[in-house]
Structure formats: structure tokens, C-alpha cells
Specification:
Protein name: Xaa-Pro aminopeptidase
Number of domains: 3
CATH topology of the largest domain: Creatine Amidinohydrolase
Family: Belongs to the peptidase M24B family.
Largest sheet: 6 strands, mixed
CATH superfamily of the largest domain: Creatinase/methionine aminopeptidase superfamily
CATH architecture of the largest domain: Alpha-Beta Complex
Distance between the termini: 41 Å
GO molecular function, one term: metalloaminopeptidase activity
Strand content: 15-25%
Radius of gyration: 25 Å
Number of helices: 19
Shape: globular
Structural class: alpha+beta
GO cellular component, one term: cytoplasm
Number of strands: 28
Pfam families: Creatinase_N (PF01321), Creatinase_N_2 (PF16189), Peptidase_M24 (PF00557), Peptidase_M24_C (PF16188)
């Protein structure tokens, strides 16, 4: 009945080839007189989603997570992952070859400083690491009495014989009606932010796409064109994109704003700027160390800091916000149709996680506007819902049974990017499930209602989401919220709501609001909406104040609410949110879905859930 065009359920990774490939890598290291090498899960731009030809960590170790690294030495090897992936890594990596290490509690550089021996030569690929990480690698090698060496060729590439070609997805125009500002005006703003620098090297493809109002198709789920740009204080920018990606019309349009060049000319460009003694700004989070090293060896000065485009891109303009609202209305109607369908089908006991993924994508495709999903849908039943980053495969596919079902999903539309999580009751939820769901909901409401002075960071409000859980001795390990792009990455910085979110929140920034709770091996809870920061007028206020407008429109499952835990203000917020959901989405729904939505969002007004929740009177 349904199908998925944007998500595969193939089993990815596994320990089968780890021993053979680690041995091959060690032979390749001997050929370069190296005693060890680090293999990150990274491309030249530090993207979250990387093209197939950059999946070196997966190819070598079998680990298929989105973040991690491996270090291979002559006599031992290790894979480093964060807390999201420790169990996955243990299942996918050959433990007889690779130790699995928690990369946050024991960073690779700390492990390396103890594992290396004096006099050894440790290699790295300067295209795949930032300048700061290379400095930490150098310090680790120095502590061990070893030498850090930039490899002339990545040894993994020399043994990966069927390595895919570089991607060449077509570049498309992101029309001004969606972007809200022409590229020329953006270039002017960037120049004004250069400070003492002679120019900026744009290494983040998200910033590149934003600056020139283009989108691409080089990686999964995010419309990125991989490449670089150099914006000088004076003169025309240089845009370095693979010419295979450019139609004649796109080439002519981009040629109005920039000189066009191939990406592999970025190193000669840095050499030329270095000989001129140029001071160039590099983005510390995405710039390859190779480029800063090249510039400085040639006589230039590398100013490694924050690309100013990051904050410019984060603060959405009116056209982008209007587009986001339209995208969320469209997406909310599709999600509501799915929830109505799911509520009818799940109790029959025949649905699986893959069925749910395929159905939800089909409802989104039926809008006629879906370009892609914004990330692989997390459809998690039973104990799988306790894994925050679970990915269903043909092997892991689970039947949806009584308990809770968690679905975290989103869509890429030309006018906006969505990301929404709902936890759904299947059968009669337990008292414990309702308690945990309601504590998560209380934290979600606290963030949604937050009012704070301009200059407040996400770290300063993160605790609001955690307090109801803390009061019961509980917590969750991920951040409360991440930034979201405008038909770009569903995970956009620099803004975030987390313990490490130090960037001040500003009007126009879009963030997620997604506290959660996870009982390992049992069930998980997460409720996520997207919000936009907006000015908030308060009578008699002595400071400029900000708050949030909730963008996501979709019902929250009232069958999971323990009404005794909600206070009057929280109930008022929930009623008001659902009234807005009904008013906005009802005109876009057929009669059956509209009737379901009214019932699903009105249960506390006296409609008793057929699954046994107890709405307040």
C-alpha cells in the first residue's frame, strides 16, 4: 500500500570485514612509513551527512553511526563513539580487532597519548580534520614522544578499490521568494563582517548554499552542493563548484556574482593568497587543516574562528519564516493524516516499524511538495523507543504492540524544513508511561512558554526542560534543542538549547524543543516541536525580552497524560495549542481525519479516551 522513496531499510555495517581491512590498512601504513593512522567519520567539510565516497569509517570498521573515529596502530586499534552509539558499535564492530571506546569520556587524543610509543610516526589526512583537532593530535603525539605526520595520500583510499566517485548532484536555484534576500546583498553583509581580514574562506556547504541562494544534491536528506567559496574584501568572490553540477542557466546566474572554479583549485588559491600576505578568516568548525596550513606556509595569516555567515543564516528573514509556517502547516496536516491512520491500524496488531515509516512518507509525498525527508525517520516500537537514534532496518524491524510507539521525522520542502516527534499510546499505557510522558510534556511546555532577556543562551534555559524530570531523579542525555535550517540542514548551528549552547538566542532563529525520557530496554518518550525566537512585549519591562512561537502543528497524545501532574497554566497551554492545531489544520483534512483530530485533541474536555486515560474535568 505504501512505499518509501527516500529511506532504505537495508542492513548497513557489521563486523564481517573488520579484520581483513584493518590488516590491509596496516600494510598501507608500512608503505608510507607510518605506525598508525586516524580515520574519522568526516568529509572535507565536516558534514553530518557525508557522501558515499567519504564513508571511510564505515568501510573500515563496519560502524554505521553518524559520528565517530577509528585509530589503527601496529598492535592495537580502537573505535571511538559517543553515548548514542556505544551499543550499536559493539554490535557492528569486530571486537577482536577494535576496542570500542566512549569518545566523550575518553577522547581519541587521550587514548592516543597513552597508546603511542616514543619515536613512532602517526599519520592523519589534513583534509578531514579541523586546525584545532590537528593541534590536539600534535599534543597527544608530543606527549608520547611520537611524530605527527600529514599523509601524502589517505591510506584508506589506496586500499578501498571500489570507492565511489565524488558526488555530482545538480545545483539548483533557491528562489528569492523563499530566500528573502538576493545573493549580492548577502555578499555585501559578509564583507562588512570581515573585520581585519582580507577575506573569508567559506568551507561549510550550508553557508555556501545560503550565501549564493543555491541548493544541491550531493548528500542524503540535506540539499547541499559540496564546494568552497572565497569572499574577498574587494573584488569578486570565487565560487569553487564541480562544473559537472552546473547547467548553463545556473552557470550564467552564478557568474553574475562570482568567478567560477573547480574545488580542487582551492589549495592553489590558498597558496596564491599566502604569497600575497593575505589574512584569511577560516571557520574553525568546518575548515580543513590543509587549507590553513597551505596559506601559512606560503606566507599568509590564518584567522581561525567563526564564519559570520553562521549567525546570519540562523536568523531567518520574513520570507524564510513565512515559508517555515507554510511548510509546518502542510507537514502538520500530513502527520495528522498519518496519526489518524495509525490510530485505526495499530490496535489490529499487524503494523511494523517499517510499515509506519512507509506510510508517513507517503502521506508527506501526497502533499505534492516534498523534496526529501529531512533525516531517516525514527520509528521505534517498545524497547526500540528507548534508543534516541534508533534506525529501523529489515533485520531490526519490530511489530508494533501494546505500549508506546515513538516516531521522529521531518520533511524537506522548498519553503522550509520540518522536524517533529510524537510518542503515541498503543493499547492502554501504564501508569509509569503516563508519569514519564507527562514530566517530559511539562518540560516541553516550560520551554515553549519561556520568556527571557535578549542575550540569553540556550544553556541558560536548558534546565527548564529538565526540572520536572530532575524532581523525580530522572534526566535525558541529549540536548533539549538544536537549530534548524531553511530548506537546509535539520541540525543547524550555532544556536542550540543544551548544556553547551553558549550562543545567544536571537529573533528569527528556529530551534527544536525536544525533552525526552528513556528506560533502557523498556520504552522511550520524546515530544518535539520546532519554535522560532521572537520579540516578546511585556508591560513595564526594563529589558528587551524574547520568547518562542511554536511552528509545529500536530496533536499531542492526551491518552498518555497524567492530568494530576499538570498545573492550570500547563493545561491552558495544552488546550490553547490544540485549539490552534484544530483551527489551522482542519480545513486541510478530509472528514474522517478532521473528526479524528477533534476527538484526539478534545479528550480533556470530557471525552474519555477509549484506552483509559483520565481527562481532567
Amino acid at each position: 500500500m505504501f512505499e518509501s522513496r527516500f529511506q532504505s531499510f537495508a542492513d548497513i555495517g557489521g563486523p564481517t570485514n573488520g579484520a581483513v581491512r584493518a590488516a590491509e590498512l596496516r600494510r598501507a601504513l608500512d608503505a608510507q612509513s607510518l605506525d598508525g593512522f586516524i580515520v574519522p567519520r568526516a568529509d572535507e567539510h565536516q558534514n553530518e551527512y557525508v557522501p558515499a565516497n567519504a564513508e571511510r569509517l564505515l568501510w573500515l570498521t563496519g560502524f554505521a553511526g553518524s559520528a565517530g573515529a577509528a585509530i589503527v596502530l601496529k598492535d592495537r586499534a580502537a573505535v571511538f563513539v559517543d553515548g548514542r552509539y556505544t551499543e550499536q558499535a559493539k554490535a557492528q564492530v569486530d571486537g577482536s580487532v577494535f576496542e570500542v571506546r566512549h569518545g566523550v569520556e575518553e577522547p581519541p587524543t587521550e587514548w592516543l597519548s597513552r597508546a603511542l610509543k616514543a619515536g613512532q610516526r602517526f599519520g592523519y589526512d589534513p583534509r578531514l580534520h579541523t586546525p584545532d583537532f590537528v593541534r590536539r593530535l600534535a599534543a597527544a603525539c608530543e606527549a608520547a614522544g611520537a611524530e605527527l605526520v600529514a599523509a601524502a595520500q589517505n591510506p584508506v583510499d589506496s586500499i578501498w578499490l571500489d570507492r565511489p566517485e565524488s558526488p555530482a548532484g545538480p545545483v539548483t536555484e533557491h528562489k528569492t521568494q523563499f530566500a528573502g534576500e538576493p545573493a549580492a546583498a548577502k555578499v555585501t553583509r559578509v564583507r562588512e563582517a570581515l573585520g581585519r581580514n582580507d577575506g573569508v574562506l567559506v568551507s561549510d556547504p550550508h553557508n555556501l548554499a545560503w550565501l549564493f541562494n543555491i541548493r544541491g544534491a550531493d548528500v542524503s536528506h540535506t540539499p547541499l552542493p559540496l564546494g568552497y567559496a572565497y569572499v574577498p574584501r574587494d573584488g569578486r568572490p570565487t565560487l569553487l563548484l564541480d562544473s559537472r553540477k552546473l547547467s548553463a542557466a545556473i552557470r550564467d546566474g552564478l557568474g553574475e556574482h562570482a568567478e567560477l572554479a573547480e574545488p580542487d583549485t582551492v589549495v592553489p588559491l590558498m597558496e596564491r593568497l599566502g604569497r600575497q600576505g593575505a589574512r584569511v578568516l577560516f571557520d574553525g568548525a568546518t575548515a580543513p587543516a590543509l587549507l590553513t596550513q597551505t596559506l601559512e606556509r606560503a606566507g599568509g595569516k590564518a584567522d581561525v574562528g567563526a564564519d559570520p555567515i553562521g549567525l546570519m543564516k540562523a536568523a531567518k528573514n520574513k520570507a524564510e519564516l513565512d515559508g517555515a509556517r507554510a511548510a509546518h502547516e502542510r507537514d502538520g496536516a500530513a502527520l495528522t493524516r498519518f496519526l489518524a491512520w495509525f490510530d485505526a491500524e495499530a490496535p489490529r496488531g499487524r503494523l511494523t516499524e517499517i510499515d509506519a515509516v512507509q506510510a508517513l512518507e507517503s502521506f508527506r509525498r501526497a502533499t505534492g511538495a516534498l523534496k526529501d525527508i529531512s533525516f531517516p525517520t525514527i520509528a521505534a516500537a517498545g524497547p526500540h523507543s528507548a534508543m534516541p537514534h534508533y534506525r529501523v532496518s529489515a533485520a531490526s524491524n519490530r511489530k508494533i504492540e501494546s505500549g508506546v510507539f515513538l516516531v521522529d521525522s521531518g520533511g524537506q520542502y522548498e519553503d522550509g524544513t520540518t522536524d517533529v516527534t510524537r510518542t503515541i499510546a498503543v493499547g492502554r499505557p501504564t501508569a509509569l508511561m503516563r508519569d514519564r510522558f507527562t514530566r517530559v510534556l511539562k518540560g516541553h511546555i516550560a520551554i515553549a512558554k519561556a520568556v527571557f532577556p535578549r542575550g540569553t543562551s540556550g544553556a541558560q534555559i536548558d534546565a527548564l526542560a529538565r526540572r520536572p524530570l530532575w524532581e523525580a531523579g530522572l534526566d535525558f542525555d541529549h540536548g533539549t534543542g538544536h537549530g534548524v535550517g531553511s530548506y537546509l540542514s535539520v541540525h543547524e548551528g550555532p544556536q542550540r538549547i543544551s548544556k553547551t549552547g553558549t550562543v545567544a538566542l536571537a529573533p528569527g532563529m528556529i530551534l527544536s524543543n525536544e525533552p525526552g525520557y528513556y528506560a533502557a530496554g523498556a520504552f522511550g518518550i520524546r515530544t518535539e516541536n520546532l519554535m522560532v525566537v521572537e520579540p516578546r512585549a511585556i508591560a513595564g519591562a526594563e529589558r528587551d525580552m524574547l520568547g518562542f512561537e511554536t511552528l509545529t502543528l500536530a496533536p499531542i497524545d492526551l491518552r498518555l497524560v497524567d492530568w494530576k501532574l499538570l498545573d492550570a497554566c500547563e493545561i491552558k497551554w495544552l488546550d490553547g495549542y490544540h485549539a490552534r492545531v484544530r483551527k489551522t489544520l482542519s480545513p486541510q483534512l478530509d472528514t474522517a481525519a478532521r473528526r479524528w483530530l477533534h476527538e484526539a485533541t478534545s479528550r480533556r474536555l470530557g471525552i474519555r479516551s477509549r484506552r483509559g486515560s483520565e481527562p481532567a474535568t
